[in-house]
Amino acid sequence: MRFTRSTICMYANDHPPPHFHVRGSDGREAVVKLAGFTILAGTLSARDIVEPLAWAKRNARELFDTWQELNS
User: Fold this and answer.
1) Are 51 and 3 in contact (CB under 8 A)?
2) Sheet holding 19-24, edge to edge
3) What is the tens place of the pLDDT at every residue in 17-51?
4) Helices of type H across 1-72
5) Three-state SS at 23
6) How confident is the model over 46-60, as pLDDT tens digits?
7) Which residues pair with 8 in a beta bridge?
8) Judging by DSSP bridges, how do beta strands 6-9 and 19-24 pair with one another?
């Protein structure tokens, strides 16, 4: 999913816990845990992650289902 300042990505055979990556337009990245939407790692600014986090919270079921498909 693409946003104004960033993109959400998921990878097959990725490590637990279930998570997604948010990549900023400048190449920086954050890893966000699906349970609770906490940031596990990364250096994105708040303005780069606000929009994707809001979308992810509205689409949590879809993200979790995608994680299961890619990593089972």
Assistant:
1) yes
2) 6-9, 19-24, 29-33, 39-42
3) 999 999 998 899 999 999 999 999 998 988 899 99
4) 46-58, 60-71
5) strand
6) 889 999 999 999 999
7) 22
8) antiparallel
| Token pair belonging to 57 | 């919270």
Q: Any idea which residue has 């919270």 for tokens?
A: 57
8 confidence band (pLDDT: 50, 70, 90): very high
- Asked if 6 contacts 49 with a C-beta cutoff of 8 angstroms, the reply is yes
> Exposure of 35 by Cβ count < 10 A (0-12 exposed, 13-18 middle, 19+ buried)?
exposed
Neighbouring residues of 44: CB distance < 8 A, sequence distance ≥ 6: 6, 22, 24, 28, 29, 30
Instruction: Name the DSSP class of 15.
Output: P
